[in-house]
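Long-time lurker, finally posting.

We've been working with DUF3500 domain-containing protein (Priestia endophytica DSM 13796) and I want a structural starting point before designing mutants. I don't trust myself to interpret raw outputs, so I'm hoping someone here can both generate the structure tokens and explain anything notable. Sequence follows.
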Amino acid sequence: MKRKKLVGYILTGALSVGVIGGAGMSAFAASDTTKSTTQSTTALPGEGFPQSEPKDSILDVLNQVTESKVTQQGANEMKLANNFLSTLTDEQKSTVQYEFTEENAEHWTNLPANSQNRNGVALGDLSDESIEAALKLAKASLSKQGYETLTEIIKADEFLTTDTGRTEWGSGLYYIAILGTPSENGEWMLQISGHHLAENIVFNGKEQVGATPQFTGSEPQTFELDGTTYSPIETRRDGMYSILESLTTNQLNKAKISETFRDVVVGADKDGQFPEESEGILYTDLTKDQQKLVQKAIKAWVKDADSKTANKLLKAYLSKEALAKTYIGWSGSTDYNEVGSYVRIDGPRLWLEIASQEGVAYQDDVSNDAHFHTVWRDKLMDYAGEFTE
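Top reply, 14 upvotes:
Generated this for you. Predicted structure of DUF3500 domain-containing protein:
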């Protein structure tokens, strides 16, 4: 089944403007030195040539929206989504809007734009007015913590490109897509995706009804940009590893997962592929102080969602019945600086995992710095449960 768009477009060759890249951008393979002028009629978002063309920085607009008091978390997302769409050209709208189908919803990635395509248009291809409107929508759709997570991951990518000179990264290479029609009735979805980031937020009219799957990550772990130090995944990392640090030797042995992992298990393109059996130590086998650490770690992810949605989810995840069936597991190493270190929280609905990766931007002997991939999923309510069997 082909990906369907809400607004039609004409395919004219193997490379497109506004089909597999952002509006006004011709996508091309990273190794190509010339650009074709034809478009394959079978090319779809996520197929063919990666969205690898460098983009201008969006940090000035991002900082302006961050500092603005006008747009607050929990504002009318439906209205802000339509405001964003109103700033776009017809061609840009055809790139941004999709039908809310399972195939379209599941099409997201945490990889850089030179590795794999994603839905939507690159923020770096938009006018300042459109970038501002897109970020206001993101800010309203997330909590203060969640918006900070998003903006700090984007800033990490800007740091990577300025520090290394490599162009597959950068703040302009984050994409926005809207699935369905933002309206008073019916479900629609906001996707914001880029390197180390995927937000998949579902609304029913004005009400937010889904916050997962969410992918967050960062390379490097900590960086300085314009005089400010950032560590986007620190709260998640410290939450998980504080649990491990609290465990006795016997508890660590019980919590250890038999398999080792090079990455998160249920990341992009892995929808519904949870392990058949849970592994680790049960929440109920922990002391009260250790249980508090587990709850704190869970909140490090869930409180990225708007407050109403987060409270509803936490009520489900932290219920006595759910916690009695929640497992904490680890693999590889209990030291997060060791590549292959891995921790997960696995409940009846909740799925959290963090994996320590080998550096990609920094692999030399001097600055070989592990970085993190993390995933938050809801086994029943990913994509608001729209496609859960």
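Before you design anything, note these points.
The two ends are 19 Å apart (CA to CA).
Residues 59-229 form one domain.
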